[in-house]
Specification:
This protein has 225 residues and is mainly α. The chain has helices spanning 4-11, 13-40, 47-54, 58-64, 68-79, 84-93, 98-114, 120-128, 133-160, 169-188, 202-215. Helix content is 72%, strand content 0%. This is Transcriptional regulator, TetR family.
Length: 225
């Protein structure tokens, strides 16, 4: 027996298409906004450009997001800030050593953020945040602080379990953050921050950085010369 939804699709195809289009609009608008913000920056992106790329009118855009600032905040939450619930749940469920957790954290960040267009949002905030203090504070509140808190939990776990030496955690977290920020700048700045004669493999780079954070550069007992 046909369902009500299938009957609508059959006898009112225009209406059903319009309804499906309406349901898809917020996601399409956020995707279009992410593309343009990363390509052009916040200041240079116009709301009508976002609407045009998403295939809707500017008025439709403002039905969902009343200003460009609110649209940008929604993009931040969709791609970065809204993911910390998931990441903290993974922290709670992780059963390996803390060294394994730290490696996993860095690799997952690259797979889920660094490799995606969303990594350009950090570069954008670094270059334009000073001109938009309200957006900069929003980014700090929704992305930077939760990220730092998660890394603190990881390092504190290692110390509490006797796996890591006691360290100044508030400063040690930047040893983990720095290589990830470097990769975002490398990716979104025409790769000018590396020697053009040598290729940079992001996975190998993060693996090397993780080992350096965990063990330093000193020769360890048992290492082969």
């Amino acid at each position: 027996m046909p369902t009500p939804r299938s009957l609508v699709d059959k006898f009112c195809p225009v209406r059903s298409k319009r309804e499906r289009r309406k349901e898809a609009r917020p996601g399409e608008l956020l995707a279009a906004a992410l593309d343009l913000f990363v390509e052009k920056g916040f200041a240079a992106t116009r709301s009508e450009e976002v609407a045009a790329r998403a295939g809707v009118s500017k008025g439709t855009l403002f039905l969902y997001f009343p200003s460009k600032e609110e649209l940008f905040k929604a993009v931040i939450m969709e791609n970065l800030g809204g993911r910390f619930t998931e990441w903290n749940a993974e922290f709670e469920a992780f059963e390996g050593t803390t060294a394994e957790m730290l490696r996993y954290c860095m690799n997952v960040w690259w797979e889920r953020v660094g490799l995606t267009k969303a990594s350009g949002l950090t570069k954008l905030m670094m270059s334009e945040g000073g001109n938009f203090p309200d957006l900069a504070e929003f980014y700090r509140e929704q992305v930077v602080r939760p990220g730092h808190d998660l890394l603190r939990r990881i390092l504190q776990r290692g110390i509490d379990r006797g796996e890591f030496a006691p360290v100044d955690i508030d400063h040690a977290i930047y040893s983990v953050i720095a290589p990830m920020v470097f990769l975002m700048l490398w990716k979104h700045s025409a790769m000018v921050c590396v020697d053009g004669e040598s290729a940079l493999d992001p996975e190998k780079f993060l693996a090397t950085q993780a080992e350096t954070v965990l063990y330093g550069l000193s020769v360890r007992p048992g290492d082969k010369a």
